């Protein structure tokens, strides 16, 4: 659908597709599913964060036994939060591309 879209549009479309492929019929993920999705699809950004308090706080919230589910909006906020905390973000900032 976004064959001619910008890189940023394609990135967000991919995030939506990955989320939707994992979501239940109501379009939501359980906390356990969210954690698993992050660990398999976002590991480059969370690698090295395991001992940082904010990361532990986020993961602990996902480990709570609860019927609460994550919707796409909350999932995207979670991705942005983890990206901002990531050691990988600084490496990305140091890379300059030319187009």
UniProtKB/TrEMBL annotation:
Residues 50-85 form the EF-hand domain. It comes from the Eukaryota. GO terms for molecular function: calcium ion binding; transition metal ion binding. InterPro entries: EF-hand-dom_pair (IPR011992), EF_hand_dom (IPR002048), S-100_dom (IPR034325), S100_Ca-bd_sub (IPR013787). This is Sentan. The lineage of its organism: Eukaryota, Metazoa, Chordata, Craniata, Vertebrata. The gene is SNTN.
């Amino acid at each position: 659908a976004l064959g001619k879209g910008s890189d940023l549009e394609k990135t967000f479309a991919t995030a939506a597709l990955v989320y939707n492929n994992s979501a239940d019929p109501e379009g939501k993920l359980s906390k356990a599913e969210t954690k698993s999705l992050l660990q398999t699809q976002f590991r480059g950004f969370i690698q090295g964060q395991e001992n940082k308090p904010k990361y532990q706080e986020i993961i602990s919230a996902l480990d709570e036994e609860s019927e609460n589910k994550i919707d796409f909006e909350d999932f995207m906020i979670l991705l942005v939060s983890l990206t901002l905390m990531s050691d990988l973000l600084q490496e990305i900032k140091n890379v300059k591309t030319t187009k």
